Every structure is written in structure tokens, then in C-alpha cells.
Amino acid sequence: MKYGLYPGCSLNGTGIEYGLSTKAVAQKLGIDFVEIPDWNCCGASSAHNRDHLLSVALPARNLALAEQHGLDQIAVPCAACYQRMKAAEVALRDEPTRREVGEVIEMKVEGKSRTRALVEVFTNDLDAEFLSSVVVRPLSGLKVASYYGCLLVKPAQVAIDSPENPMIMDKLMAALGATPVEWSYKTECCGGSLAITRPEASLGMTANVLKYAKLAGADCIVTPCPLCTSNLDMRQKAAEGLLGMELGLPIYYFTELMGVALGLEMSQLGLTKHFVEATSLLKNTPAAQ
């Protein structure tokens, strides 16, 4: 299988473990990701807060580049990048908008390349039966809170699943042998975008997500969003102080848990790069008999 890949600004920076695990898992599964040449920042989230045309033009240039290189489907790991790319794809269906954007980016763009969230590719294009068949270290006994955040399932025009109770990542975790927990905060905002401008409000939102995952009996949280991961991981100690309770919840990218289940080494997946220690919980994962 071949897809275009839009890595965005996080996969080699704050979300480097997402980048490492995505490449390792794709190679293991025989998926060919072709990085869009000369890609640019999609503008999330500063552009759409300032100028609508800019917010469409920035991701539209990436779509135009994908079209030029014959990449019909674009896998996007970052939830924020996915939303901006998908929103541009939708906006380009309008001919006057498409013409105006083409003038701004000085490139022909038709909006024909399809934007796909990476979790959607790994779950919908690889069925559960196949995934279960390639698992060599089932995540048996691991209770996982699947945290989608607010960008993959809202608004409806770009949603990859139900905005109220998405299950796509829960199904993926189940195929890997883990036990998804039921909880009510899976699509609540973690406050990551407010961390600089309104840190107190952000911390309260972060703490709530962590608290309710813990109360649901989760051993860890899994997410497809670099901003959410950084926020829940890096600020977890501060959240413990605010809540007056110990949390100790590793925050994993779904690709990291896929990699472990597929038998890849933890060092390949970036699992040693977390703030909350993330390897101990997985070291007792048994090999399949």
C-alpha cells in the first residue's frame, strides 16, 4: 500500500516518538509512505485564528504538491494538521475558493488528493483480523483510555468517527490485545492550545482528562495528537499537584503501542523519550504462544 505522508512540524520535534514509531510500524507492515516533497507548515492553529484565506492556502499548497506527485491519498499523523488539511480539501470544492487559493499559492490545485488521518489508515485500511494475526506480543491485561481530543472528530465535515463516542482507536487497541476502558472524556479538550495564553485554565482541563481516565481504571492513555500528548505527559506532575492525587499514567501514541504489539524494540519507538516513565508498564507484555 502506498500513501503520501504529510509529517507536519511535530514528527521530528516535540512528537519525535510519533515519527519514529510511525516509520517503524509502517515498515513492519509493508506500508509505503512517501513524504510530500517541499511541504510547508499547515498553519495550525495560528493561521485560522488570523486569516481565513491564509488558513486554506497553507494546507492547500501541500495538497497541490501531493497532486503534482501523483499522491492520491495523504496520511496525516497529527490531529491538528489533519483537521487543517481536511478543512482545506473541503473548502477547495468551491470553485471560486479554489481559483483564489491557486492565485495565492501560485500553483494549480484541484483538491483531488484525499486527506486521511493516520489512525484511520491503520485501522480502516488494515482490518482487525489482519492486525490480530500479525501481533506477536499481545497487550493482554493493559487497560487503555483512548483519547481522541477535539480535532479528529469535530466539526462534522472533517470527522473520522462519531463526535460523541468515537471507537476507531478503541477497536485498534482491542485488535492489539489491550482492553479499552469506557470513559466520558475521550473527546474533551485537554487545553493544550491554552497552555501559553491561559495556563491556569489549561491545567484544569488537562487535570480533568487525566483524572477521569484514572477513575475509569485505565493504566495509560493513548492518543493520535502531538499537542495532547505533550500536554498530558509534560504537565502531568503539575496536574497531580492540582488534583491532590497520584496519576502515574503513561501517555502513548497509538503507533507506539502498535509497535510493541508487533514485536519492535522500545528504543525504535521512542518510548524512552517520555516525561512519565513509559517502558515499565509494557515490559511484562508476553510474547504470543
From TrEMBL:
Keywords: Oxidoreductase. It comes from the Bacteria. InterPro entries: Cys_rich_dom, HdrB/HdrD_reductase. Residues 4-85, 144-233 form the Cysteine-rich domain. This is CoB--CoM heterodisulfide reductase iron-sulfur subunit B family protein. The lineage of its organism: Bacteria, Bacillati, Bacillota, Clostridia, Eubacteriales.
